[in-house]
Amino acid sequence: MKKFVIIIDALKDVTAFKDSEIFKEYKQNTILPPFSFKPEASFLTGYPPEKTDSGTMYIMDKKSSYFKNIFFTRFLPEKPDILRKVIKVLLLRYLKFVKKINSNKKIDFGFIPFKLLSNFALSNDFNLFDSNCNFKYDTVFNKLKSKDKKYLYVGEPFISGKLENVRENLSTSELDNNNIFFIYITDLDTIGHEFGGNSKEYSQQLSKTINYLEEIAVYLKRKSLIYEFLIFGDHGMVDIKRTINIEKKIKQTNLKINRDYMYFLDSTLARFWFRNEQVKQKIKDSISNDKYGSWISNEEKTEYQINFQHDKFGEEIWWASGGTLISPNFWQGTNFIKGMHGYKDEVKENNTMVLYKKDDNLSYDAISMTEINKLLIEFLELN
Q1: Helices 187-195 and 200-222 sit at what angle, rounded to 10 degrees?
Q2: Mind giving me the DSSP string for 341-366?
Q3: Phi/psi class of residue 149: alpha, beta or left (left: φ > 0; alpha: ψ in -120 to 50)?
Q4: 113: cis peptide before it, omega within 30°?
Q5: Distance between terminal CA atoms of the chain?
Q6: Which residues, at least 6 apart from 110, have a Cβ–Cβ distance to it below 8 Å?
Q7: What torsion, rounded to 10 degrees, do the Cα atoms 100, 105, 110, 116 define?
C-alpha cells in the first residue's frame, strides 16, 4: 500500500475534488484552522496553540532575539523600498555569519521596522517537519522515525513547494520505490494573496493541483499498485474587502513606542505590550470594536485555546474581522493584497478541508486542526 499525505497551502473548503473520478468517493470534512498563521504544530503534534506556543511567527522576547546586541539596526533606513530590500539581504547574511546560523535556515522578517527587530524572536525556532527535531512534543515525523518507517518528503519547507518544482522532484522511480510520501504544495497561497481566493486564477491553480494528483493516481493504477491519499489544507483564503490603518490610530494617541508601548502588526492581528494600565486603556480606546475587528476577549482565548502562560504573543490582541487587512503591517508593508487568512472560525472562507478514504471517523461537519493529527497517526499506522 502506497500512502500519500498531501498538504496544500491555502486550500479553501471546496467541492472541486468531488468532480474527480479519483476522489469522488473520498470523505470530506471542513477544518477550522487554529489561531492565526502557524498551524503546523497543531496537525503535526495534535496539541493546540497554548500548548505548543504557536500562532504567530514572532513573539516579544528580547533575550532570544537573533538581533539582540546588534545595535546598528536601529539606525538603518526604511525607505526607499529598494534600499530596504538590499539592506535586508545584507543583514540576513551578516546575521548568519555572526550568529553561526545554518545557511539553509529560512529567516524572514518582512517589513518589521529595523529599529524594532531586537525586541522580537521567532515563536518556534524548530523545523517541525524534520524527524530529528527535538520539540517538546513528538511530531508525526518523530513517530515515523521511532518506528523506523521510511518516507519521501517533497516540497516546503525543504525545497520550493511550487507545483512545477514538486513535479520535477517526484520521479516515477521514486513513486515505485517508496511507500510513504509527504507532498507540501504552496502555489494556492501565493496566488490567493495576489488575486484573492474567489479569483479565476485561484480556481485554475486548484484544477492544476488536482490534475497532478490524478496523474499520480493514474500512474499507480497503470502499474497495478494500491494507493491511498490523505489530503488537507492548513488554512483557507479570504478576499480583502477593506483595510484599517492601525499605525495611524496609535500615532494619534501621542504615545511613544519603546517608552510607552511596543506593538507588532501582523496582517490580521495588532498585538500590544504596555508600560502601564493607563497606556493600555488609551490604546484600547483608540482602536474600536467595530466592523473592522475587535479586541480578543477572555472567552475567545478559551475558545481558541490561546490562554498562553506568558504574554509574549501580546498583552492585548486586536483581531481583524473577515475581509479586513491591517495596512500597513509588518509583512506586506503598504503593499495591497487581494487575499488573506488568519481570521476567526466564523469566516467560512478562512476554513480549509480534509479529504480521506475511510468513512468510520469524523462524522461531524467541522473538525479542529488537532484532529488531523489523529487522522495522520491512523493513516500512517503510528498507533
Answers
A1: 160
A2: ----TT-GGG-EEEEES--SS--SSE
A3: beta
A4: no
A5: 17
A6: 330, 331, 332, 333
A7: -30
* pLDDT tens digit sequence for 144-167: 999 999 999 999 999 999 999 999
Reply yes or no: is the peptide bond before residue 80 cis, omega within 30 of 0. yes
Minimum mean pLDDT among 100-104, 211-215, 263-267, 320-324: which range?
A: 100-104
On whether the pTM is more than 0.90, the answer is yes
How many other CB atoms are found less than 10 A from the CB of residue 139? 24
Query: What single string gives the DSSP state of each residue in 324-337?
Result: EEESSBTTTBT---
Q: What are the beta bridge partners of residue 368?
A: 32
Residue 228 three-state SS:
strand
- Where b means 16+ CB within 10 Å and e means fewer, 95-115 reads bbeeeeeeeeeeeebebbbbe
- Whole-number Å distance between alpha carbons of 183 and 236: 18
Bridge partners for 326 per DSSP: 244
The Cα 68–Cα 74 span in angstroms is 11
Alpha carbon 36 to its chain's center: 8
H runs (alpha helix) in the chain: 40-45, 49-52, 81-98, 140-146, 163-169, 172-177, 187-195, 200-222, 246-251, 277-286, 298-303, 369-379
